[in-house]
Amino acid sequence: MTRALLICLVSCLAATNQAIRIKRCDLAKMLHQEEVEGLEGYTLSDWLCLAYVESNFNLTKVNENTDGSFDYGIFQINSHYWCNDYRSHTENICQVDCQGLARAPGWEK
Q1: Which segment of the chain is annotated as a signal peptide (predicted)?
Q2: What are the distances in angstroms from CA 30 to CA 3, 59, 68, 73, 101?
């Protein structure tokens, strides 16, 4: 549950209709403050690498997948499993709206 809250916290920083990138050091500070070191066995460096590879630190990134699902936010959380985007089939395991993970152009209910 802590992991889901962390992802929501970081992803909710996106509140405008344009790409917003967080600086690597700012993300590192935030993740350190949230004590993610060792969470699910991953280091702080692993989390930073994930954010860089998935979104290039872009908080508002939205990507459409070939299966019709979408990936949202800095960690590219998939709508098929983790959040409800009201556009594709979802299990919504985290019981959150994808809108809170990334607010980017084109996102609408």
Answers
A1: 1-19
A2: 13, 14, 32, 16, 16
Residue closest to 47 by CA, chosen among 3, 95, 104, 98: 3
**Cα–Cα–Cα angle for 66, 67, 69, rounded to 5 degrees:** 100
d(CA 105, CA 35): 32
In a domain, 106, yes or no: no
List Cα–Cα distances, 43 to 15, 100, 107, in angstroms.
28, 25, 32
More confident residue, 109 or 49: 49
Quickly count helices (H) and strands (E) in the chain.
Answer: 3, 3
Q: Give the Cα separation of 53 and 76 in Å (integer).
A: 10
For the domain that residue 65 is a member of, what is the CATH number? 1.10.530.10
73: Cα separation from own chain's centroid: 3
Catalytic center residues: 54, 71
